[in-house]
Amino acid sequence: MIRPFEKPIYVTQPLLPDKQALVDKIDEIYASKQLTNGGPQFLKLKSELQKYLGVPHVSLFCNGTLALQLAIKALDLTGEVITTPFTFPATPHSLVWNNITPVFCDIEPATFNIDPEKIEALITDRTSAILPVHVFGNPCRMNEIERIAKKYHLKVIYDAAHAFGVKYQGKPIGTFGDISMFSFHATKSFNTLEGGALTYADPSLTEKLYYLKNFGIIGQEAVITVGTNAKMNELQAAFGQLVLERIDQEIADRKRLTELYRERLSGVRGITLLPILDAIEYNYQYLPILVQPEYGLSRDTLFEKLKEYNVLARKYFYPLCSDLACYRGQANARSGDLTTARRVAREILCLPLYGELAEPIIKDIVKIIKYLTKNQ
Ligand SMILES: *Cc1c(COP(=O)(O)O)cnc(C)c1O
Q1: What is the pTM of this model?
Q2: Is the CB of 86 under 6 A from ligand 1?
Q3: Direct distance between the N- and C-terminal alpha carbons of the chain, in angstroms, rounded to an integer
Q4: What number of H helices and E strands is found in the chain?
Q5: 374 CA to middle of ligand 1, Å?
Q6: Model confidence pLDDT, tens digit, residues 319-350
Q7: In CA terms, which of 7, 198, 203, 219 is 20 to 30 Å from 327?
Q8: CA–CA distance from 233 to each of 96, 109, 206, 219, 230 (Å)?
């Protein structure tokens, strides 16, 4: 019999910077007397991220959602955009905030990413773009997606909120499509408390994005566009520099822990792990499993039982965005056939994973999962 953990084991834990180093950074900010509006910390983080992410251009924001909203605006998208229902609500919300109708396309069983083969059937004369998500850090089938985009003259924005540091065939993930969005929320592997970034190749976007995130102000007496306020501040940027120093170690720790989970969980009937694709450099941000009928307990039952052991797994992404009250049966969205997305949303469960998670805890979590299926 395994006893419940004394303290809750959360699905993740934020990556924190060295505390003394943060105090030193705060001293720098005090000395500079600049708290926001593109100060020295902001400029330093921007150049470090440009290098780390291996991208030609990066623009920083106060969070990922506003970054995505402004990416959509900067590309002048209209009408309908094809996206996935298997994502965080911020993805379709960003479209609706731009008066665009999200059109939900089904996902692939292997990666839970948008299924390129089902995109074309959803294209209408109102479609202006495709907004795929690299779910759990696994790259979408970008060659196929971009071939379709070219054929129909559509833009492509990738929601890369899960894909910090990922590479596909040696190419940094942020170099694909017209724009990619990264989230630096506390729960993501790299964080700036809250924050986000857009990466892109077209240099003309730099100015456009700058105006959009800073009220459209071009000079003390001139405002050229109806922008908003989406700037990253100096404390966020300083925090981010220090977290960036630790990210490679964090990814290495998560890789080691992922391998432990995979080794221990392999052979448990009805528990399926997400494949780690060839030709990618992965970031190990999540540990998703599918709980399938052969396991004996449903995903929801396993979720509840784990909670009794103080293991707080998460159902990312259930419900599907298309089933949320703000979209289901509403005129603001449209859906294709979502057969695979519905099944995956019913079976998905993300187990605890973060660099500081102790190996014995993982071993016990797996023991609990095995015990529950044997002793139902
Ligand atoms: C976290 C997340 C976002 C939102 O990012 P914020 O920085 O929290 O605004 C968007 N899309 C996906 C897929 C996410 O996981």
Answers
A1: 0.98
A2: no
A3: 13
A4: 10, 18
A5: 37
A6: 999 999 999 999 999 999 999 999 999 999 99
A7: 198
A8: 26, 40, 18, 20, 9
